[in-house]
Amino acid sequence: MTSRRKPPSQRQLRVGEMIRHALADILLTRRLDEPDLDTALITVTEVEASPDLKHATVFVRPLTDAMRDGLEERLNARAGRIRGLLAGPLRRLRYMPRLSFRLDPAQDHASHIDGLLRDPRVARDLGGGAEDDDG
After folding, report:
1. Does residue 49 belong to any structural domain of this protein?
2. Residue 135 falls within a domain, yes or no?
3. 46 within domain boundaries
4. Structural domain span for residue 123
5. Which helix (H) or strand (E) holds 65?
C-alpha cells in the first residue's frame, strides 16, 4: 500500500495565492531595499502553504538564467524581512507563515522536454514513423 500526500485544502490554496500576489507586488515595486534583488526580475510561480499554514514554500523563477546563481540563497537570507513586508497586506492571517524559497523546477523540466523533442532522431520517429513501417 502506497502512502499518498493529501491534496491541499481550499484554505491552503487561498493562502498560497494571497502570499503569491502580495509577494509579487513587493518584488514589482522593489520594496526590499536590497540592490541585488531589487534589480532582479523574478516571477513568483507558486506558493505552497503547509496544512497548519505556518510554513510556505515559495517557488520563484528569474527572467534570465544569469540571475539564477545564488537567487535561492539570497531570497532565503532575506526571508525574515520579506515576511515582515508581507505582514501588512496579509494582516487578515492569524499567523504569518515562515517562508522558504526554491527555484521552480518546472522551467527546467520543460526545457529538457523541449530539447528532447528537437533531437533529430526523435523528430524522425515522431514525423515519419508510420510511413517507414508500410514500406
Report:
1. yes
2. no
3. yes
4. 10-129
5. none
As given in the structure block, the three cell numbers for residue 64 are: 534570465
Residues 6+ apart with CB under 8 A from 51: 6, 8, 9, 12
Average pLDDT per run of 10 along the chain, which is 135 residues long? Answer: 76 95 88 72 92 95 80 91 92 92 79 75 69 48
Nearby residues of 22 by Cβ (< 8 Å), 6 or more positions away: 86, 89, 90
Beta strands in 51-118 (DSSP E): 55-62, 98-103
In a domain, 91, yes or no: yes
Number of H helices, E strands in the chain: 6, 3
Please say whether the beta carbons of 60 and 74 come within 8 A. no
pLDDT recorded at residue 107: 67
Count of CB atoms situated within 10 Å of the CB of 26: 18
Q: For the chain, what is the domain count?
A: 1
CATH code at position 83: 3.30.300.20
